[in-house]
Design brief:
Blueprint lengths: L1 H16 L8 E3 L6 H13 L14 E6 L5 H8 L8 H4 L10 E3 L5 E3 L17 E6 L9 H17 L4 E4 L28 H10 L10
Parallel strand pairs: 1-4, 2-5, 2-6, 3-5
Antiparallel strand pairs: 3-4
GO molecular function: N-acetylmuramoyl-L-alanine amidase activity
GO biological process, one term: cell wall organization
Pfam family, one: Amidase_2
Length: 218
């Protein structure tokens, strides 16, 4: 028994020493993923990003941080869960596929996963094909919390160990990629104005992630 305890401790110390970080607690709360959503995602990749794929997978290279402009995970789930986008003609003209994100973080820092992190989600024009989306419950009237800041940091650190993440950007910063090779949007006039989650939150978040040596935004 003593030897077993010693071995367990030794393995734990070894894992720590080689940089294995414990993943944050993530609650699985999957939105509808059926053949219709698969096909609409493939259509979006082809028609909007110019990418013909047999499966709607992404190869994550960046993380885009958003706020929801509503007050609950339940409301966000109910918004993202339908396969087709109801209303919002400024978006439906581009695709009937509903918006979504891979992750949502509640006000208290609880992390929910709506889609696998390597599966396509429609959340950022021009960058969906390579970007993981993190939604945060909040708005201009309800600024994001310290608990959400910590949870975003932990989640991005976890994702950075799985994927070669180069950029972490706020949704309001996405147009900075328009004149780069990262930008893939077939219609140059398909742009929406965004202000989430704001410069202050993103400056704080990137300051906490400085050791990851992320690339500066264009």
């Amino acid at each position: 028994m003593k030897f077993t305890n010693y071995l367990t401790t030794a393995v734990a110390l070894l894992l720590t020493s080689v940089g294995f970080a414990q993943s944050p607690k993530i609650i699985q709360k999957p939105i509808t993923w059926n053949q219709e959503r698969v096909q609409l995602s493939l259509d979006y990749l082809k028609n909007r990003h110019g990418l013909t794929q047999s499966t709607p997978v992404i190869h994550p290279k960046m993380v885009v941080v958003h706020w929801t402009a509503n007050n609950s995970v339940k409301a966000t789930f109910n918004t993202f869960n339908p396969v087709r986008l109801p209303g919002r003609p400024e978006l439906t003209k581009a695709s009937p596929l509903n918006v979504s994100s891979q992750f949502v973080i509640d006000r208290d820092g609880t992390i929910y996963q709506f889609l696998p992190d390597s599966i396509f989600a429609r959340h950022t024009i021009g960058l969906n094909y390579c970007a993981i989306g993190i939604e945060n419950i909040g708005s201009r009237q309800n600024p994001l919390t310290d608990a959400q800041l910590k949870a975003n940091e932990e989640l991005i650190r976890y994702l950075s160990k799985k994927y070669p993440i180069e950029f972490v950007l706020g949704h309001h910063e996405y147009q900075r990629f328009k004149k780069t090779s990262w930008w893939k949007e077939t219609d140059p006039n398909y742009i929406t104005g965004k202000d989430d989650p704001g410069d202050k939150f993103m400056q704080q978040l990137r300051k906490h992630l400085v050791d990851l040596k992320l690339s500066p935004l264009p």
